Amino acid sequence: MLERLRALIAIPELEFAGLVVLALVAGAVSYVLIRIVVQRTLRDTGAVRTILKRADAPARLLLPLLAVSVVLDHATLDASWLGGVVHLVELALIALFTWFALCVVSGVQAAIASHNLIDVEDNLRARRILTQTRVLSRILMGLIVLVGAAAMLMTFPGARQIGASLLASAGIVGLVAGIAARPVLGNLLAGVQIALSQPIRLDDVLVVEGEWGRVEEITGTYVVVRIWDDRRLVVPLEYFISKPFQNWTRSSSRITGTVFIWVDYALPLEPLRAELVRLCEGAREWDRRVCVMQVTDANERAMQLRALVSSSGSAQNFDLRCIVREGLVAYIARKFPDALPVMRQMRSGAPGHVEG
Question: What pLDDT does 195 receive?
Answer without folding.
Answer: 75
